[in-house]
TrEMBL record:
Gene3D superfamilies: 2.170.220.10, HUPs, Isoleucyl-tRNA Synthetase, Domain 1
Keywords for this protein: Aminoacyl-tRNA synthetase, ATP-binding, Ligase, Nucleotide-binding, Protein biosynthesis
Similarity field: Belongs to the class-I aminoacyl-tRNA synthetase family.
One biological process term in Gene Ontology: plant ovule development
Catalytic activity: tRNA(Met) + L-methionine + ATP = L-methionyl-tRNA(Met) + AMP + diphosphate
Protein name according to UniProt: methionine--tRNA ligase
Comp. bias intervals (Polar residues): 612-622
A GO term for molecular function: methionine-tRNA ligase activity
Residue segments, region Disordered: 586-622
A GO cellular-component term linked to this record: chloroplast stroma
Length: 622
């Protein structure tokens, strides 16, 4: 069915003068006003997010607005605002875990971070799902939105702002934004006829559909719709968008997604409808309460309305002054068009700065199909985290899936990876070393780690790997950053095996001193691992730090500088050795499955039923 667009008289006026007078040469020239665009004038409003649910404290719940970041630069990053048609699944958790790791890394660099997440609560899809559950939409949204917050708590997500699109302050900002775009002549009224995917909340082009007009993402038929709507004049922004993308190739990442966006734009941009006549559950269009604002024209504004503070004025100008533009929008590839085409054009129309980067990651798949609520092939994140704990879940997905590409989940693979990397390479090395230190040195370091490492090549190796981790965190290559940290662990294990300090202790004489130094060296390696791994597996890192004799407060004030060699000092007393990571025990004979203890933050034994044995644990030498 061909899409048909008829401009009505109502807004014909806005089309007579469709191009506004603002220059479009560079995205940096789109400013709301000088007063508003400066993020350096932002009140220092970011509270450092702490690192474990046990000490879970963020800007949002800290009760004060004093920032304690000292880097001067503010890093604002966002996850998508999740639809509340159903509780979260592992696919939705994936973006948020990645965002949290990036936020934690940026905080380690000393930056003020505003990490925004939230829920997208309006529209047909949500209203239908509320009705199907026998709830009124508001009640339904409260329940599902809360289930997202609960999951974020379980996964140690330290967000700073959680925005709900049903929040009145958000509604006020959407209306103000709409009014600006309208005043700029970019909104007009027209009839529209086309094929609509309710799950995408989007009219589709016939040529992108599968057989029987099925949506390629949701594999369900699109429905024919005819509506009288308000439209946004996207086509007017074709040239400016082309210019932005050619001038700033980092605007869309990874680079293969940039090419995708460029080819969409090149094939021609069509105006899109930004209101719905048949959907009641939404924000009314200003001056026309028979229509509600299209979910995307509503939800994208959440990235700005989230910035508002309770004690500040709830308007666009104030919100923008508190941190816009965002440094990074992290999204899945299915919503790239909305973020890299629609959103920048909307912002230009409203005279606001554009975000600095949009990163589109891949999908978590099951049997090769996108895992999703609409397809019903999801992986239950609550179950996964209850069974294996937050560190294992976070580490597995960030290590296993190259950020940007798709990745498949299998329990076998999950168990193999976390046992080999976290339990064996990292946990077991710490445990063996602390055991030896207790037995031979009363759990006390005999010398400063700097002195111990003089002339030892391991120190240089660790420094190079720390640098590899840093550059990869910075470029959002999270899997390679994990790999670098694991390589530090491998280097530590090789050192331990080569030096065999347990034999040196037995030899006596000068060898005892050498063995005691070796333990200091390995524990310094463990300390550096804890810092470098803290963005990915914060609780595990805290447990390592605690075993090295540090307090929670000391852990919470670490920075990336603490990856430098030399923090451990002679005389420091280590804590009692306890396994820092629960190895997943297999019990295939009786098919028994033992779930994680209620306090999943504590390392305990985890037994699960699996088909295959993972790599065996190295035997502790202590
Ligand atoms: N509400 C919109 C976003 C509005 S942002 C202003 C939306 N919500 S969603 O709940 O459907 O999806 C949210 C995010 O989860 C998207 O980035 C999407 O790509 C991601 N994922 C949903 N399923 C996924 C996988 N199976 N794998 C990885 N991420 C996936 O879109």
């Amino acid at each position: 069915m061909a899409s048909r667009l008829n401009t009505s008289l109502h807004n014909a006026l806005s089309l007579i003068n469709p191009f506004n007078t603002k220059p479009f040469s560079s995205r940096n020239t789109f400013r709301f006003s000088k007063k508003l665009s400066s993020s350096s004038s932002q009140s220092s409003s970011c509270k450092r997010a702490l690192y474990c649910t046990s000490t879970f404290k963020t800007h949002e719940n800290s009760g004060d607005g004093d920032g304690d970041g000292d880097g001067g630069e503010t890093f604002v990053l966002t996850t998508p605002l999740y639809y509340v048609n159903a509780p979260p699944h592992m696919g939705s958790a994936y973006t948020t875990i990645a965002a949290d790791s990036i936020a934690r890394f940026q905080r380690l660099l000393g930056k003020k971070v505003i990490f925004i997440t939230g829920t997208d609560e309006h529209g047909e899809k949500i209203a239908t799902s509320a009705a199907a559950n026998g709830r009124n939409p508001a009640k339904h949204c409260d329940l599902i939105s809360q289930s997202y917050r609960n999951l974020w708590k379980e996964l140690d997500i330290g967000y700073d702002k959680f925005i709900r699109t049903t929040d009145p302050k958000h509604e006020a900002i959407v209306k103000e934004f709409y009014a600006r775009v309208f005043a700029n002549g970019d909104i007009y009224r027209a009839d529209y006829e086309g094929l609509y995917c309710v799950n995408c909340e989007e009219y589709k082009d016939e040529k992108e559909l599968l057989e029987n007009n099925c949506c390629p993402v949701h594999q369900m038929p699109c429905v024919a719709r005819k509506e009288d709507n308000y439209f946004f004049a996207l086509s007017k922004y074709q040239k400016p968008l082309e210019e932005i993308l050619s001038q700033d190739s980092r605007f869309v990442q990874p680079s293969y997604r940039l090419h995708e966006v460029q080819s969409w734009i090149k094939s021609g941009l069509r105006d899109f409808s930004i209101s719905r006549a048949l959907v009641e559950w939404g924000i009314p269009v200003p001056d026309d309460d028979k229509q509600t604002i299209y979910v995307w024209f509503d939800a994208l504004l959440g990235y700005i309305s989230a910035l508002t503070e309770e004690n500040e004025q709830q308007n666009l100008e104030t919100a923008v002054s508190l941190g816009w533009p965002a440094s990074l929008h992290l999204i899945g590839k299915d919503i790239l068009r909305f973020h890299a085409v629609y959103w920048p054009a909307m912002l230009m129309s409203a005279g606001l700065n554009l975000p600095k980067m949009v990163f589109g990651h891949g999908f978590l798949t099951k049997d090769g199909m996108k895992m999703g609520k609409s397809l019903g092939n999801t992986l239950e994140p609550f179950e996964l985290v209850q069974k294996f704990g937050p560190d294992a879940v976070r580490y597995f997905f960030l290590r296993e899936v190259e950020f940007g590409n798709d990745g498949d989940y299998s329990e076998d693979r999950f168990i193999k990876i976390v046992n080999a990397h976290l339990a064996n390479t990292i946990g077991n090395l710490l445990n063996r070393t602390l055991g030896l230190l207790k037995k031979n040195c009363e759990s006390t370091l005999v010398v400063d780690s700097t002195n111990a490492a003089e002339g030892i090549p391991l120190k240089d190796t660790v420094e190079k790997l720390v640098e590899k981790a840093r550059t990869n965190y910075e470029s959002l290559s999270l899997s390679t950053a994990c790999e670098a940290v694991l390589e530090i662990g491998n280097a530590g294990n090789s050192y331990m095996d080569q030096r065999a300090p347990w034999l040196l202790f037995k030899q006596g004489g000068d060898s005892v001193e050498a063995a005691a130094k070796d333990l200091v060296i390995i524990l310094e390696v463990m300390r550096i691992i804890a810092v470098a791994l803290s963005p990915i597996a914060p609780c595990l890192s805290l447990r390592i730090y605690s075993q090295l004799g540090y307090s929670v407060d000391q852990f919470n004030s670490i920075t990336w500088n603490d990856t430098k060699w030399g923090e451990l000092k002679g005389g420091q007393v280590m804590a009692q050795a306890n396994p820092v990571f629960a190895r997943i025990e297999l019990n295939p004979e009786n098919g028994e499955e033992e779930k994680k203890p209620k306090d999943s933050k504590k390392a305990g034994k985890v037994k699960v039923k699996v088909e295959q044995q993972p790599q065996t644990q190295t035997v502790a030498e202590a």
